[in-house]
Amino acid sequence: MLHSGMSVDTMIRISRAFMGCEFELVLTGAEKAYLTDAAEEAFELVRRLEEDLSVFIPTSEIAEVNALADQHPVIVSPRVFRLLQKAAELSAETEGAFDITAGALVKLWSSAESVPNQDALDAVRATTGMQFVHLNERNNSVEFTKPGMRIDLGAIGKGFAAAEVVQVLRDARIETALVAAGTSTLYPLGFPPDADAWTVGVRNPLMNNERLTTVKIRDQAFSTSGSHERFVEIDGVRYSHIIDPMTGWPVKGLLLACALVDDPIESDALSTAFFINGLEWTRAYCQARGDVGAIIVTQEQPGDDPVVHRIGTLQDIGGA
Ligand code: AMP
Ligand code: MG
What is the pTM of this model? Predict the structure, then answer.
């Protein structure tokens, strides 16, 4: 596209696997080499974040917390400490639905070969809850007050990475970019070259590659939670990877929950919480907040068409 300055805009689209998904960057600017360098810098940052945050990397800060914090306080980096503080706030905000201490339940279900019995679930559930995590601001330390607790940042890590990536791109003076952390979180920087908002498609969870609806986003992050892509199958039954910390059971009910709000860490946590807390809770929450939009997709009965519920003002949530 030609601008008044007659410089030719270039767009690059580049993706790399991190955090169990494909991170995709769409960057626009004057020079391809410059954009490619910025993308490499952004990917390097995500790689380092994954090294700090992943429960699957034994040397990560979070793995160290999980291994030792029930014995003594574990000091973490300021960045990880702030993320844990933010996670604690979001847990309170969502009435405990979003809860990073659901980690032990997540592990139990994801590795289960048969449905866990209720006693086993109750025992693990008793180690779940942010009230058992002591965050000491004076030395950035984390301590668990129950043995066997486990933190899992799977519902917030991609949003956090998207926020950090956009900061790197902004520092590199890139004005137009779209960051996609898999299908989990989308976070734009600036405006698309030829429009005043980004139009984002929401895929039909029942029919791959079919678009169910679209959303316009502008200076906001958009996150999606669902069970159709990630689940565990036990005895032929599919169980969601999202666990309700109140019951200890994988969540059933909605097909999809999406959240739209200015902070990608928050949109990521909220889409997970909306998926757990359901349609009516999400409606009431968005009404009380005013600055949060949601799309909830339900299905009355197996075999029925999905129903899209758009929540929040039209401006928040864009046009269909
Ligand atoms: P998302 O796809 O953002 O909704 O995050 C789902 C991931 O977060 C799961 O794969 C688990 O790793 C983790 N998780 C599951 N249940 C919860 C929960 N209730 N609160 C926080 N994280 C959870
Ligand atoms: Mg999430």
Answer: 0.94
